[in-house]
Amino acid sequence: MKIKNLILVLIAVFGSFLLSCNPSQKNVEFNEQKGSVSINTDSLLIKDIVAGIISKGDTIITDTTWQTSNQGDSLLTFEKPNYLRIIQKYTRAEENSKWFQVRTKIENLSGKPITIDYVIPFKSQSISSKIPYERYLSESQLTWNYSGIWHKPVERESYSFAGFSDPTGEAALVIGFDDMSDAVYTLDVDMNNKSINSIMAKCNREGIDLKPNEKLQISDLVLKPAKSLTATLKEYGRIVTENMGRSDADVIDGWCSWYYYYGTLDYNDLVANMDAIQELGLADEVDVMQIDAGWYNLTKEQEEENWKIRGDWLNDHGFKFPMGMEKVADKIKEEGFIPGIWTAPFLADKESNVYKEHPEYFVHRNNNQTTGFDLSNPKTLDYVERVFDKLANKDGYEYFKIDFLGAGMFQGSKYNERKTTVVSFRKGMKLIRETVGEDSYILACGAPLAHCIGIVDGARVGHDIATHWVREDQPELINGFGGHGVQMAANQVIMRQWMNRIFWHNDPDGIITRDYKIDRRGEHPPMAEEDAKLWARLTWFVGGMGFYSENIPELAERSPERFQLMKSALPANKVSPDLVDWYKDPKVSILKSDGDPVMIGIFNLSEEATRIEIPAKKLGLSNEWKFRERLNNETFAGSGEIVKFPELPAHGGRIWILE
To answer: How far apart are CA 216 and CA 222, in angstroms?
Structure first.
């Protein structure tokens, strides 16, 4: 894509880049005459590293007018006199750490503002390793966008970090930023069949001017070559939480109205489900009764146009809950549950009263039915605070599912153009946390995940679940995966499993298993048997949050077997499993839970049956083993260096318990 009138200030840092396993070895060698850097070990080679900025205006490439200097073993200065200075420091993240860290500062040396669209701390078009990286793990910005393993040529942006591995998990590389609290950070990756063509790391400054003599330091870029992609991602996560914080809340389970009622839940439905949960022996597994979208509709007509008044979160005494939301919360507490409620706190429809009465609260976008709150505006924040003060401190809700959080990242005309969108977003998120209190549980959904770290207790990590495998109109949406169904939801849950209990508690989404069609704001087909069993197995095995999302009394009566399948998913596995570094087929994943007993979960998201054969040492097994499947009690045993699992059907999942 051509970018008109952009200044690309590129500081060529030519050399080789090999990370050392010996922390005492001199890492950085700088040739002042050539402006070159080399960092050496024996596992990874990165050449022709480039850094710089992108700014509106002309394009300027580093040349002999740039002055370079080495101020010590690792501090490098690149200066365009009377224009810009960029300082980069190459160090270990910590003493004796195998993580490498690049710290980047820029300073305006001119007498006028310089518009900064992007800071580019790292760019290379020559990257190789002893064992070629043939797999690329990309991360998306929002909950429901694709995160997954690429095994074919692709040019794709990854948010916050990128991961690389070979197919059998013998070599890995993780590169990412260590703090996403001030800006959107991305990595542009170009992959071929056998290796990485290029990586460019960027910090999006959104065109904010750097004033004369002003300095800016962006978040540090960290990277590490290693053997295990999963283990290195978890290390990366801990580096991030040291800067951004993390929740220490206990995991929470419950019931959510959405995936059966789809916005039609009323008071009688709520009471019927609470009664059934107690009568059918589910109360020990259900902490929260969470009311999802639709509670704010005041009339039947609004119910029929459900998505037209989002934003009016101060509505009360609607036709489905005429006693008011405070009394509904009281009833939930009386029954022994925690009251939970859904909002989309940063989003509004243009037909909502809050938008009509206060257009100044919003980021204005052309030709869109929905818009996002301008979180740089103090008046907008006052409204957000009033909403959550009512729901938490007046009405008594203690669990908050906050959805469509991506609306808080909408671009457009804003009240304060000097703040990045991320800074304003996190201010809004922190305001919600301060208003509802530390003891309340916040679940982020539809969220820019990286920017929620340290504020929320749980996060939805996948696409919306549905009763179909893939959408009929999107059988192959991206990288071989279909849209909005069991397949995509399961893939996202697996690919983001490393985040569980590091950033927050992962929420795989609602537990649904029904084998009959329902008509609630549209038809929802019955769930195929293998799909339902895969989803029940997976939501249990990953050891995150778990929320039933069925009409409990109806499911128990109409389909006792599917009721028992749903019931099997809670309480969740107590030992969070790890994704095994085995990436031969991106649609077939293996996870291992190292508790007592050891368990191996295998999930086939493809359209064909498969047989998994994997070295026993890759699973940490001895040369003899015997397994029993958790749900169907099938057994198999074997010995030798290779574990040959029984055939796994298309859409199939199995949890093998080591005996």
So the answer is: 18
Note the pLDDT tens digit of each residue in 160-202.
Answer: 999 999 999 999 999 999 999 999 999 999 999 888 999 999 9
464 as an active site residue: the answer is yes
Cα separation, 528 vs 554, in Å, equals: 18
Q: In what order do the strands lie in the sheet with 441-444?
A: 505-507, 458-460, 441-444, 399-402, 338-343, 288-291, 253-256, 546-548
Taking the whole predicted model, whether its pTM rises above 0.85 is answered as: yes
Measure the CA–CA gap between 246 and 454, rounded to whole angstroms: 4
Q: Are 263 and 294 spatial neighbours (Cβ–Cβ below 8 Å)?
A: yes
Question: 642 pairs with which residues across the strands?
Answer: 615
Say if residues 588 and 610 touch (Cβ distance below 8 Å): yes
User: Which of these is catalytic: 188, 209, 330, 464?
Assistant: 464
Cα 213 from Cα 207, distance rounded (Å)? 17
DSSP 250: P
For 498-551, the three-class secondary structure string (H helix, E strand, C coil) is: HHECCCEEEECCCECCCCCCEECCCEECCCCHHHHHHHHHHHHHCCCCEEECCC
**Whether 403 is catalytic:** yes
Give how far Cα 326 sits from Cα of 329, 331, 603, Å.
Answer: 5, 9, 43
Strand partners, 636: 627
The predicted-structure confidence for 569-596, as pLDDT tens digits, reads as follows 999 999 999 999 999 999 999 999 999 9
The residue annotated as part of the active site, out of 316, 403, 531, 578, is: 403
Task: Give the pair of three-digit tokens for residue 494.
Answer: 């697996």
Tell me how far apart the alpha carbons of residues 99 and 110 are, in angstroms, rounded to a whole number.
35
Question: What 8-state DSSP symbol labels residue 482?
Answer: P
